[in-house]
Amino acid sequence: MFNSLKEKTAIITGGSRGIGRAIALKFAALGANVAIVYAGNESAAQSVCEEATAQGVIAQAYQCDVSDFQAVKETVTTIKKAFPSVDILVNCAGITKDGLVAVMKEAQFDAVMDTNLKGTFNFIRQCTPIFMKNHHGKIINISSVAGIMGNAGQANYAASKAGVIGLSKSVARELASRNVCCNAIAPGMIQTDMTAAFSEEDSIVQQIPLGRMGKPEEIAELAAFLAGDGSNYITGEVIRVDGGLAI
Question: Is there a catalytic annotation at residue 157?
Fold first, then answer.
């Protein structure tokens, strides 16, 4: 099978919806067991597990506040006991609390940073000893073109996603000697709950050279490549999947 992930196990945060869901189902189709980490929508997470299990893999859901260091530690420990291995980590959990910086409340800024950036660190921190011991592993962090080019009204979100890029590059340098690759994907306008208010006629969509929003499955295709053996010599990269928006 092309880029097979058979017998590998992936932890996917934010795996119950949007991009995370698409990645989980793509990985399952390629033979990977999946641990779906979700914030609150248990039914959505279980639905993903049912679809993944139908592919003949192991799939289980875990509720976890990714911003809580201790909760993440306990969740990863539980996943280690339930699966034969942990080979891949996809950090996809993310939130938005948009507002202009002149009126943004501290709580808005902190909440986005805690989930998007600290949450990414927390899972990397807990999975790193596993990857180092095994002398292999793939870490895929979902950033955003907002973290590259900024976006008015999203100072907190852009800052968190820019932080994910810096974190990814640093982790790539630290873990390269242990054969662990860490890369970031920077999606543009993707059809998810976060962009439900936009249509193809909106001005920001009109600015996309390819003329449309992307699909979660198009992010999943790249994630699958980065998780597979074909990307063993790629680390520390930030790859845009944005239809040319950030050219």
Answer: yes
